[in-house]
TrEMBL record:
Family classification: Belongs to the methyltransferase superfamily. LCMT family.
Any GO MF annotation of the entry: tRNA methyltransferase activity
The EC number(s) this enzyme carries: 2.1.1.290, 2.3.1.231
Subunit structure: Interacts with RNF144B/IBRDC2.
The keyword Methyltransferase is assigned to this record: yes
UniProt entry keywords in alphabetical sequence: Methyltransferase, S-adenosyl-L-methionine, Transferase, tRNA processing
Stated name of the protein: tRNA wybutosine-synthesizing protein 4
Broad EC category: transferase
Lineage: Eukaryota, Metazoa, Chordata, Craniata, Vertebrata
Pathway: tRNA modification; wybutosine-tRNA(Phe) biosynthesis
Organism for this UniProt entry: Tachuris rubrigastra
Amino acid sequence: VGSVSSVPLSRQVQGTGGSSAVSKCSAAARGYIQDRFLRLLAGRRRRRAPLIHRGYYIRARAVDHCVQDFLLKTQSHPRTQVLSLGAGFDSLYFRLKDMGLLHHTVVYEVDFPNVVCQKATLIKRMEELSALVGDTAGEGLGAITFSGEDYKLLGVDLSELSDLEKALEEAGLDNEIPTLFIAEVVLTYMENSRSDALIQWAAERFPRACFLLYEQVHPEDPFGHVMLQHFSQLNSALHSLTQYPDCEAQQRRFLGRGWTECSVMDMNEFFTCCIPEDEQRRVQALEPFDEYEEWHLKCSHYFVLTASKGMEPSWTPLLPSVTVPHHVGPVGMAGSVPAAVCARLSGVPGLRRYGHCSVLIKPDVILTTGGFGEEDGQHCRLRNYHVLSKHAGSWKAGCVTKTRPDKRCERLYHTVSCVSDSLALVVGGRTSPSSAGLGMLWLKFSETYNASDPDDIAVELVNLQPAAERATLRWRHSTTEVTFKGEQYLFVYGGRSALEPVLGDWYFLHTQELSNTLIAVEGPVPESRHSHSACSWEGGVLIAGGLGAAEQPLGSVFLLREHEHGFRWQAVETYPPLIPRYSHTAHVHEGKLLLVGGVWFHASSVPGITVIDLMTGLCLDYVINVEHLEWPLMLHNHSSVFLPNEKELLVIGGGGNCFSFGTHLNPEPVSLNLSSILTSH
């Protein structure tokens, strides 16, 4: 994050710059970015989480991609210049110089005087840095803090345009040669009138110019709320978002202030379209990783914008190298579904969790197990079970606190299948993303079990044959009941493991013996996926969505149905096509498939409820009306249970680690009344 002025804010904004340098340094240490200069400039060293590494990788990659494209397109010009606004402790100049890309380019960096002084001191003190700059002269003249032949550091307030212009003139900036302006999370900290004036000034004063902007977007959705709250708590409000909340508004902003060409991409699109596939695979394999939802949400809330004027040939670094079909324009919503808090369940701490599983063990009784959440004021993997039961129209919660907590119950992204009135089967799950996966557990409870008197639940490890064991060493999979020749089986499909980032295999486990049974399956095999949904329907299974091999959301729906000698896969066509998504939940009701929440790449809205008519293929999206909720409802990593008689959907838990903005857990279960959408078509 760069830095800009406004006296009371300056210290907080500078803090974001220091934190950013430390995060980039950590990403470089793990091999995400090749940059040996960051460690010299960042000062303190701290190892960040894989999610933070990916976030700073995509940011560094986008900036480098555009800067190098500018240098390449202008190499026939005798002189060019780069002006980095709010550069902080960035290493851009040293990287470019080291790569031999600055033959005829001068780099100017502008930041707060005290930041620039610190950076100048660091450079002079370190031989590795000062050797690249070479001879220095003309320092201490006005705002010029450091001056090499092709590198100038200026200590000036970006929001004071006349001071900035004067300092740049003194430092030798030439208005007539091709100039690239870089603003990497900088302008948003300024009042909009001042940042708009700077954008317009750059277009008016420089006849041949390019502008590179990297910033936040979409403050209106749940992730955006958490992001805004984080920056407000840092006393570093994001001003741009009030006036320019989406990519289209940012594009209009530049085109309306003198720039003739402007392209913009959010970071999901940039990663998919502008980074070669082998590089994508390299980055995805660097560390054990399992926070796909937060990674894609982070990427949909940041964008890279390039604007230009007077450039020959034109500067278009954001031309995709591959074209990926993505949903353009707003999602057409067929209506809305009201959301209400379950009043009796508020304040039950163990229901604030994600990566858990909830299952209906008898009519109106729900068992919730596992996940990551809040216990005794701490965030941890949860061992305790929660039971929800409905009496006289209202929900009641009970917690099963075991006298000797069973570590085997600590797991995320597992499945639970109720196989009788007193028996449920836990399949798979993980502790950490580098763990080998967990086996199966029987959960035994009384037939009269409910939340008023949640007795202890007996836990027994299932001893499996080796052939069946492979089915359990996975997470983010699905386990669904199917029927073949009158016998009951559990169909375990997809997911991922510590060795395989995505699985496409399946197993039929006989419900009684839990032995692996080989049953013939014909038809077009669905592509490998995890974080999909699976529902029992007419003795078979409906698979929808999921995250595929290249960490791309899938929009396919498949039906596995009983055939003469086994099962057959068949694709379910939807009209209009289902918007690709994953991390949703699903239910079937009277020939309709209901998809609940999830994550998609379509940034203008978040997934609500999608209803697919399995007879006609008609696919309708409904928005969830959250006006009666006092907090952002994050519908990923959640669980949901459908009560067909009341046409009520109960959403339990959900949320996750929102990049560096903190962990958000939905504070209480939410009831969605689906009666209007299930009777209307």
